[in-house]
Amino acid sequence: MSGISTHVLDTSTGRPAHGVAVLLERWELDAWLPCATSATDSDGRCHQLLAASRVAAGTYRLVFATAAYFSRDGRHTFFPEVAIAFEVPADGGNFHVPLLVSPFSYTTYRGS
User: Where are the domains of the chain?
Assistant: First the structure.
């Protein structure tokens, strides 16, 4: 499957982060415009936020609602949301952007 996808792993529990709200935005006309919304499934994944046929070159941003996720278990987080901006080149492709998160840190990378 191609397009834009993500998954979230909670490194503090060693498990997928289920039910994290995710917003995909695109930078256009000097503003972030929403493209898609979703929530991670039981495996911590959003398989296809945007289909390959709809992915145009430009700057995109994934915004993860981490405060709501952690608060479900009575945990506090230093990062109430995580925003990851990335560039899609003109030649397109598959863009999988994983998030590894804990209450006091996060990291990301371009996945496959």
Answer: 3-106
Residue 100 CB-density burial (10 A; 0-12 exposed, 13-18 middle, 19+ buried): middle
Asked whether the whole model's pTM tops 0.85, one would answer yes
Residues 23 and 44 sit within 8 Å (Cβ to Cβ): no
- Angle subtended at Cα 99 by Cα 67 and Cα 79, rounded to the nearest 5 degrees: 30
Using alpha carbons, list the distances in angstroms from residue 99 to 5, 53, 57, 73, 112. Answer: 11, 24, 22, 19, 13
Residue 91 makes CB contacts below 8 A (sequence gap 6+) with none
CA distance 29 to 81: 24
| 3-106 fold | Immunoglobulin-like (2.60.40)
For the cut 70, the answer to whether the pLDDT of residue 1 exceeds it is no
User: Which residue type does 39 have?
Assistant: A
